[in-house]
C-alpha cells in the first residue's frame, strides 16, 4: 500500500462501519494522469474501460445531456450512501457494529 501511495499517489483509507472512526492511512497525492497505464488497465479490465468511457462522457456532456449521462454512470457504479442516516440503517440492517 505504501508503494502504491509513493508511486501513484493513491490514497488508502481504513474504513470502519462508523465513518467517524475511519482513518486515512496514506493521503492521496495529486499526480498527472498516466494515460499509458490507464490504456493498459482498460485493455486488461473491461469494467474499468467502461468506467473510463462513462466518466469521459460525463465530463464532455453538453448541459442538456448531463443529467441522463450522470444517471447512466450512477447505474454502472456501485451504490453509495448519500448521508449518515443511510450508513446507520445499513449497519443496523446487516448487524454491523458501529461502536
In order across it, which strands form the biggest sheet?
Answer: 1-2
Please report which band the strand proportion falls in: under 5%, 5-15%, 15-25%, 25-35%, 35-45% or over 45%: 5-15%
Number of domains: 2
How many individual β-strands?
2
Tally of alpha and pi helices: 5
User: What's the rounded overall pLDDT mean?
Assistant: 89
Distance between the first and last residues' Cα: 27 Å
Largest sheet, strands/sense/barrel: 2 strands, antiparallel
The string of secondary-structure elements, in order, is HEEHHHH
Poorly predicted runs:
none
Fold and architecture overview:
The protein has 99 residues and is mainly alpha-helical. It has 2 domains: 31 residues, no CATH class; 68 residues, no CATH class. 57% of the residues lie in helices and 7% in strands. The protein contains 5 helices and 2 strands, in the order H-E-E-H-H-H-H. The protein has a two-stranded antiparallel ribbon with strand order 1-2. The chain starts with a helix and ends in a 6-residue tail after the last helix. The model has no long low-confidence stretch (mean pLDDT 89).
Amino acid at each position: 500500500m505504501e508503494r502504491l501511495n509513493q508511486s501513484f499517489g493513491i490514497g488508502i483509507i481504513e474504513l470502519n462501519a462508523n465513518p467517524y472512526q475511519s482513518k486515512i492511512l496514506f493521503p492521496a497525492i495529486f499526480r498527472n494522469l498516466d494515460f499509458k497505464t490507464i490504456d493498459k488497465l482498460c485493455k486488461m479490465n473491461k469494467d474499468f474501460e467502461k468506467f473510463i468511457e462513462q466518466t469521459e462522457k460525463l465530463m464532455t456532456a453538453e448541459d442538456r445531456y448531463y443529467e441522463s449521462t450522470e444517471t447512466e454512470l450512477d447505474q454502472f457504479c456501485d451504490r453509495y450512501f448519500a448521508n449518515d442516516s443511510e450508513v446507520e440503517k445499513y449497519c443496523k440492517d446487516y448487524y454491523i457494529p458501529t461502536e
